[in-house]
Amino acid sequence: MNMKIHLLSIALLALASCSSQQSANNPVLSIEGGQIQGVVSNDPAVLVYKGVPYAAAPVGDLRWKAPQAVSPWEGVKIADKWGAAAMQNSGKATGDFYFKEFYADGDPEFSEDCLYLNVWTPADAVGQPDKKLPVAMWIHGGAYDHGYGYEITMDGDAWAKRGVILVTINYRVGIFGFLAHPDLIAEDAKNAPGNYGTLDQIAALKWIKNNIAQFGGDPSNITILGQSAGAASIKNLVMSPLSKKLISHAIIQSGGGIDEQVLPEQSLNEFAIDCKAFMDENGLTDVAKMRAASADDLLKFFNNKPQQLRFRPHYDSVNIPYGFTAATFDGTIANVPYMIGYCANDNPTMGAGVQRFATERKKQHAKPVYTYLFARPLPGDNAGSFHSSELWFMFHTLDRAWRPFTEADYVLADKMTDAWTNFAKTGDPNNPGTADWKAYDPETDFTYVFDVE
Fold it and tell me: Nearest to residue 86, comparing CAs of 73, 100, 67, 72?
């Protein structure tokens, strides 16, 4: 009996020691809104903080308003659950091919209460501001009407293991994120009405600046990156006077470069007039009725909108003063290193736009631009190197895919994750001591090709 008590005591002491060690590696942090604690990720050396609110819920009177300060909570928030994704259609609505590729596991919770972010960081950096690890903020794609920050391709373990804190965000999309209306403009002209989704992204970037030191991050070394509509968002953030000074490096994935000429775009006021007519047709003739409508009804209206009514960022006098092309030629975009590229089976016009962007930056003697082409035809079908196919590799999440990836694919994923995280650290995608990936120069026209060959 005494032996059993002795063994039980040893076991309890071991458990207490383990719990104490876990607590020491996972301290309670004080951030905007209150106290928070993360959970061990799939890799035990990484802590993940899921569903961290970075702004107040944009519901009720806050629908179609600029993001407000996060609502405080009581006690310690255990960040072990993803925050709801922005209101949007089911993943099934994105088409059979992409449904099988990215959405076959089903939909997350959708809600207007969606302004949450997620943080992956090395466990030994948490609570140590002196660590000053580089930080990267990921903006998801989805044509500005769907997507969220924890899709099946997206994970930060491989980044944190390489010494980079990864933050992924949700932001308002579709009619909830990009509706303009004359009455909304009159209500709050100084806060870029109609570009709420972009303002959400800027609020998340500012949250990182103000809070990431608690997670071991360096608020003066923030890389922003995104793909597709996320890449277009990066192009907005590097020229916005509200955000460009917060950025150290930028990665633009499958979002094109610059056009040969500045194309005319519909102004915010013109878009607002079209939106008012659309809302009037649906019986929402004033702002009070618009804010009283249910989120489900608004989504139904959005699904039946005229094709020419496109809910996306528009130029305004506060946040997005003019287009990326004009800002590039003017030299008013953030003067930081850029990494920009596309997939081999993307829109065929992307290559020329990327080349023009890199050439113009070189002419201006700006900081370097690194261009790439993702050329690996994914195994399992004949889809090739399709739009979004690189996500499996740069997040190193091949094991989540249905595809029969080979050992060579995992080697390629290592190479790409190294390049992306190296760039986040220093603005140079090369491994230390190497220079295989040369900055773009029109005289050599060098673009790095990622493939298994």
Answer: 67
Phi first, then psi, for residue 313 (nearest 5°) are: -60, 140
What does the pLDDT average to over 225-235?
Answer: 97
C-alpha 139/C-alpha 217 separation (Å) is: 18
pTM for the model: 0.93
Q: Residue 300: left (phi > 0), alpha (psi -120 to 50), or beta? A: alpha
**What is the amino acid identity at position 388?**
S
Q: Helix (H, G, I), strand (E, B), or coil: what is residue 288?
A: helix
Cα–Cα distance list, 385 to 254, 332, 379, 403 (Å)? 12, 33, 10, 13
Q: Tell me: the pLDDT tens digits for 24-68?
A: 589 999 999 999 999 999 999 999 999 999 999 999 999 999 999
pLDDT, one tens digit per residue, over 67-122 is 999 999 999 999 999 999 999 999 887 778 999 999 998 999 999 999 999 999 99
Pairing of strands 369-374, 133-139: unpaired
Per-residue DSSP letter, 91: G
Q: 3: burial class by Cβ within 10 Å (0-12, 13-18, 19+)?
A: exposed
Region 332-349: what's the mean pLDDT? 95
Q: Is 225 helix (H, G, I), strand (E, B) or coil?
A: strand
User: How far is residue 81 from each of residues 119, 135, 227, 250, 314, measured CA to CA in Å?
Assistant: 12, 22, 24, 29, 33
Say what the pLDDT of residue 264 is.
47
Q: At what angle do helices 196-211 and 229-237 cross, to 10 degrees?
A: 70
**Rounded CA gap, 100 and 405, in Å?**
16
Q: Which residues, in sequence order, are CB contacts of 453 under 8 Å at separation 6+? A: none
The dihedral built from the CA positions of residue 13, 15, 20 and 25, taken in this order, carries a sign that is positive
Q: What is the mean pLDDT of the chain?
A: 92
Q: Give how far the C-alpha of residue 228 lies from the chain's centroid of Cα atoms, to the nearest Å.
A: 11
Task: Tell me how far apart the alpha carbons of residues 438 and 429 are, in angstroms, rounded to a whole number.
Answer: 9
